[in-house]
TrEMBL record:
<dbReference type="InterPro" id="IPR036028">
    <property type="entry name" value="SH3-like_dom_sf"/>
</dbReference>
<comment type="similarity">
    <text>Belongs to the endophilin family.</text>
</comment>
<feature type="region of interest" description="Disordered">
    <location>
        <begin position="305"/>
        <end position="418"/>
    </location>
</feature>
<dbReference type="InterPro" id="IPR050384">
    <property type="entry name" value="Endophilin_SH3RF"/>
</dbReference>
<feature type="domain" description="BAR">
    <location>
        <begin position="24"/>
        <end position="296"/>
    </location>
</feature>
<dbReference type="Pfam" id="PF14604">
    <property type="entry name" value="SH3_9"/>
</dbReference>
<dbReference type="InterPro" id="IPR001452">
    <property type="entry name" value="SH3_domain"/>
</dbReference>
<dbReference type="GO" id="GO:0005737">
    <property type="term" value="C:cytoplasm"/>
</dbReference>
<protein>
    <submittedName>
        <fullName>Endophilin-B1-like isoform X1</fullName>
    </submittedName>
</protein>
<dbReference type="GO" id="GO:0016020">
    <property type="term" value="C:membrane"/>
</dbReference>
<dbReference type="InterPro" id="IPR027267">
    <property type="entry name" value="AH/BAR_dom_sf"/>
</dbReference>
<dbReference type="Pfam" id="PF03114">
    <property type="entry name" value="BAR"/>
</dbReference>
<dbReference type="InterPro" id="IPR004148">
    <property type="entry name" value="BAR_dom"/>
</dbReference>
<feature type="domain" description="SH3">
    <location>
        <begin position="440"/>
        <end position="500"/>
    </location>
</feature>
<dbReference type="GO" id="GO:0061024">
    <property type="term" value="P:membrane organization"/>
</dbReference>
<keyword id="KW-0728">SH3 domain</keyword>
Length: 500
C-alpha cells in the first residue's frame, strides 16, 4: 500500500510538472525543445495521410451507399458484430416493378414482353452493383479503415509518448536552471561579512539568513536535477528514434498498400461497368428486335388495309395510265431480266382456283370487273404491250378462259369507277382457316388491330396480342371462337393472323 501511494504521488507530481511546463510554453515563459526537422516532416506527412485517407474512405462509403440512414444502421450492426439484413437495391426494385407491370399488361403483347425483358436486365444490373459494392468494401474500404484504426493509432500513441518525454526534458532543464540560479545567489550571500555582536537584533539580516537557507535547498538539488536531465534526455532521444523508425516504415509501407488498394478499386469498377455495358447492349438489341417486329406489324396492317374492300380510283389499261408510282415503261416483248414460266391457254399452276374469263358476266364467286385483253393482276401500273412485264416477278397472264397467274387478286378494268374488294369475303377463307374449320382444332393467332365487341357473345381484341382460336361447328365461316385467359367470345377472321 505504501508503494502504491508513493507511485501515485510520483505520477501526480510528474503530471503536475508537465502541466506547468506546457502552460509556461503556451504563455511564452519557458523554452521548448524543438524536434528534429526530419522527424517533424514525418509526423506532418503521417497526419496529412490520415486526414486524406479518412476523407477518401467516407466519400467512397457515400458512393457505395448514398442513404445516410442505411450507413448508420450498417455501422451499428458492425459495432454490435451482427449481420445486417440484406435489402434489394434500387435497380433490383425497378426490375421487379417492370416485371410485375409486364405480367399485368400481358406478356403476349409487345410492350408487356419488353417490360419483362427490361426488368430482367435491370435485375442483372442490380446484381452487378451488389457485387461491386461488396468487392469495393473488402478490397478498398477495409484496408483504409485498418490503417486509420490500427497503424495510425500506433503512430499517435508513440507521438504522445514522445511529447510527454519532451515535456519531462524541458521540466528537468527548467529545474536545473533554477537550481543553478539559487546556487549562485547563495554564494553571493555567503560572501557578505557579519555585522558584529548585534547582528541578532537586526531583523533584516534574519530575513536574509532565512532566504539564504531556502536558496541552499536549491543548491542541493543541482546534482539531482543534472541526473534527471541526463535520464530525460536519453529517454527522449530513444523515443524520438523509435518514432522516426515507425514513421519511416509506415510511410514506405502504407503508400504501397494504398496504391494496391486503389488498383483493386479501379479493376473492380472496370469489371462492374463492363458488365453493365454488356447488359445494356443486350437489352438494347432486344428492344430493337421488338421495334422491328412492331414496324413489321404496322406494314402488315397497311398491306391488309390496301385489300380490305375500300373504294379506290379505277385503273385503266389505256396508254399512259398510272397508279401514282413512277415506273419505266416497257417496250413490246421487253422483259425485266427475270425468267418466269408462261401459261398457255387453259394452263394452270397446280393450284385449284376459279378461272377468269373475258366474257361479260363471268365471275369466280367474287364480284369484280371483267379482265380485258392486256389487263394486269390487280395492281395499277402503266399500260404495257402484249408480253411486257412491270418489274415484279410473277407468271405471265393470258386472257384465255381459265388462265390464271397463280395469285388470287381482283382484276382490273378499263371502266371508270371500278373498286378493289377484300381478299377474304364472306364465304371464302384462307387455306389455314379452312384447315382450322376442317380439323376443329385450336391455333394461336395474332391480332392485327383493335376490335371492340358489339355484343356479349363477342370478344374485344387489342392489336399485337396473341390469343387462342377454335373453329366451332355451326358457326359462321367469317367468325372463330377466341379465348384469352378465362374470357371467350367470337372474333372476326379478318382481324386475325393465324400462326404456325
Amino acid at each position: 500500500m505504501d508503494f502504491n501511494v508513493r507511485r501515485l504521488a510520483a505520477d501526480a507530481g510528474t503530471l503536475l510538472s508537465r502541466a506547468v511546463q506546457y502552460t509556461e510554453e503556451v504563455l511564452g515563459q519557458a523554452e521548448r525543445t524543438e524536434l528534429d526537422s526530419h522527424l517533424e516532416n514525418l509526423l506532418d506527412r503521417a497526419e496529412a495521410t490520415q486526414q486524406c485517407t479518412e476523407k477518401i474512405m467516407k466519400q467512397t462509403e457515400v458512393l457505395l451507399q448514398p442513404n445516410p440512414n442505411v450507413r448508420m444502421e450498417e455501422f451499428l450492426y458492425e459495432k454490435l458484430e451482427k449481420m445486417a439484413p440484406v435489402r434489394p437495391n434500387n435497380l433490383e426494385l425497378l426490375g421487379e416493378c417492370m416485371i410485375d407491370a409486364g405480367h399485368e399488361l400481358g406478356p403476349g403483347r409487345a410492350y408487356g414482353n419488353a417490360l419483362i425483358k427490361c426488368g430482367e436486365a435491370e435485375k442483372q444490373l442490380g446484381s452487378a452493383e451488389r457485387e461491386f459494392v461488396q468487392s469495393s468494401a473488402i478490397n478498398f474500404i477495409a484496408p483504409l479503415r485498418n490503417f486509420i484504426e490500427g497503424d495510425y493509432k500506433t503512430i499517435v500513441a508513440e507521438r504522445k509518448i514522445l511529447q510527454n518525454m519532451r515535456l519531462d526534458l524541458d521540466a528537468a532543464k527548467t529545474r536545473l536552471k533554477k537550481a543553478k540560479e539559487a546556487d549562485a545567489r547563495s554564494a553571493e550571500f555567503n560572501s557578505t561579512p557579519p555585522l558584529g555582536e548585534e547582528y541578532v537584533t537586526h531583523f533584516s539580516y534574519m530575513l536574509g539568513f532565512l532566504h539564504v537557507r531556502w536558496l541552499k535547498m536549491w543548491t542541493e538539488e543541482v546534482s539531482k536535477a543534472e541526473t534527471e536531465l541526463r535520464i530525460s534526455q536519453s529517454e527522449f532521444d530513444r523515443q524520438a528514434e523509435i518514432t522516426r523508425l515507425l514513421l519511416e516504415g509506415h510511410n514506405s509501407t502504407h503508400e504501397t498498400q494504398h496504391l494496391r488498394c486503389l488498383t483493386d478499386l479501379v479493376d473492380t469498377q472496370t469489371t462492374y461497368y463492363a458488365q453493365c455495358h454488356q447488359y445494356m447492349v443486350n437489352m438494347e438489341k432486344q428492344l430493337g428486335s421488338f421495334s422491328s417486329v412492331y414496324c413489321a406489324n404496322n406494314n402488315q396492317l397497311s398491306l391488309a388495309g390496301a385489300s380490305d374492300g375500300i373504294s379506290r380510283p379505277s385503273t385503266s389499261t389505256a396508254s399512259g395510265a398510272t397508279d401514282g408510282i413512277s415506273r419505266p415503261s416497257t417496250a413490246p416483248g421487253a422483259t425485266d431480266g427475270i425468267s418466269r414460266p408462261s401459261t398457255a391457254s387453259g394452263a394452270t399452276d397446280g393450284i385449284s382456283r376459279p378461272s377468269t374469263s373475258t366474257e361479260p358476266g363471268a365471275t369466280d364467286g367474287i364480284s369484280r370487273p371483267s379482265t380485258a385483253s392486256g389487263a394486269t393482276d390487280g395492281i395499277s401500273r402503266p399500260s404495257t404491250a402484249p408480253g411486257a412485264t412491270d418489274g415484279i416477278s410473277r407468271p405471265s397472264s393470258s386472257t384465255a378462259p381459265g388462265a390464271t397467274d397463280g395469285i388470287s387478286r381482283p382484276s382490273t378494268s378499263t371502266e371508270p369507277g371500278a373498286t378493289v374488294l377484300p381478299l377474304h369475303t364472306a364465304g371464302q377463307s384462307s387455306p389455314s382457316v379452312n384447315e382450322l374449320h376442317l380439323s376443329n382444332g385450336t391455333r394461336k393467332a395474332r391480332v392485327l388491330y383493335d376490335y371492340s365487341a358489339t355484343c356479349n357473345s363477342e370478344l374485344s381484341l387489342l392489336a399485337d396480342e396473341v390469343i387462342t382460336v377454335t373453329s366451332v361447328p355451326g358457326m359462321d365461316s367469317d367468325w372463330l371462337m377466341g379465348e384469352r385467359g378465362d374470357k371467350k367470345g367470337k372474333v372476326p377472321i379478318t382481324y386475325l393472323q393465324l400462326q404456325s
